[in-house]
Design a protein that fits this description.
Length: about 280
Amino acid sequence: MKTTVAFLALTLLIRASASPELIEEHVFGGLPSEDDLMVRTAYVLDYDADRKAPRWVAYHLNANYRQTPKRTGKWSSYRNDPDRTDEPREADYRGVFQDEIRNYARGHLAPFMISGGDRDGDGKILDADKDGIVEAGDDPDEADTVKQVNFHSNLTPQHHHAFNGSGGVWFEIEERVRELQEEHGEVWVFAGPVFGPGNYDIIGNDVHVAPMFFQIIIWETNANEPDMEAYLMPHHQRDHGSIAEHLVSVRHIEAMTGLNFFPDLALGDAERMSTYSEN
DNA sequence: CGGTGGCTGGGG
DNA sequence: CCCCAGCCACCG
């Protein structure tokens, strides 16, 4: 038993230490949980195999990373995660989108728009002219970064017309992320589903549909005073009003999810309890 | 399996 | 018009 625990601890340690600099970059203030970490070039997530969904995803975003190839062709294809076998698959979503009520599409948690930029520091990006074709001057080394963001482990069922698609509240929160990135230069984001006690809609082979989702957007005003907006959004609600109506405290999201945000930061109650307003 | 191309829809 | 979020059929 002791050796099993030691082995598990060692395994987690090795996984985490494989890319400590990426965890440091993407996960603001420390890991909210540490069950099944997956470290990718553009994002980090903690996977919940029982629900076939991430507990959370985290990413750092700046103007550089927004330089993605056009989302078309191979850059728009969803792919199976080569490092998992217990993730949702394309077949799990089959026919669901056509259902008027259960109009679920595959929604990115770490969005496509963060998957670009010069990550290896060679001065080149994948597709400067956004035509979707790798050509002379492009950096093919950045192709994996784009493909990773389209892995099924980073996708969950999201109601397209009421939530994920244009006009939906998730779509508008992602617009808010872009807006804050442009305003402050760089932001950090946590996003994920909220499962409480109770029953959930299930699609395909035991893929759980979250009844709510959260996003926390963080930026730095100075080294020790992060500013942030935390949102909690119902999944099935077409008329969602202003996104400001969904602002909550980080403590609220922690209570709903069991996660522990910013464990490495000495944040006072003011930061954790406040509800932040737009502008 | 990966790649191509055409489609829906809201908003600026 | 473009952007962004998605869908599907079809082909090698």
